[in-house]
Please model this.
Amino acid sequence: GGRDVVVDAKVPLDAFLDAAAAADDAERDHHLARHARQVRTHVDQLGSKAYWKALEGAPEFVVLFVPAESFLSAALEADPTLLEHAATRQVVLASPTTLIALLRTVAQGWQHEALAEQARAIHRLGVDLHQRLQVLDRHLDNVGRSLNAAVGHYNQAMGSLESRVLVSARRFTELSVTDEDLPAPRTVELRAVERSVEREDQAVERDRSTG
Model:
């Protein structure tokens, strides 16, 4: 999705290798303690660099990848507070078995975030479309009212033509001026359906509240 997770794989391992080659337990414990200090120092260095600030869309942490389970377990055994110390500095310690799980979890979280954003966008679009339909509905209602008014005015004009004009004009036939009859004008019976937009909106609101 165009987003990044910073993974560092430069953890120092020389102290651990010295511990593996130690001749006795005391020397081994000394090198393991040094190994834990080296890892802690590397954690502090990574946390201070704040790599995530340079990458848009990156989570606010950096993964410190330790390439073997034994390397990480040895450091934690020598310094049990190392995980908590790393967490306070936005550094996540990850071994081979946890790195992929960590990255997949982050990716899944991003997918859910993307779906949630799509849902919010659909909601905004639906609200906007509903508002526009309400405006269009009012315009159409006004057009219907105007059509009804035009039909009424037309029928009034036809009635006036019949009662005030054609009555006199038909007398030309009686006076033998012409033999052609003047037909009565036809009125318009078809009317647009009238309704109250305000009453419709109130009914919709009542349905929502009771639903």
Notes: The longest strand covers residues 62-65. The chain is about 65% helix and 5% strand. Helices lie at 14-20, 25-49, 69-78, 82-88, 96-169, 171-174, 197-210. The mean pLDDT is 81.
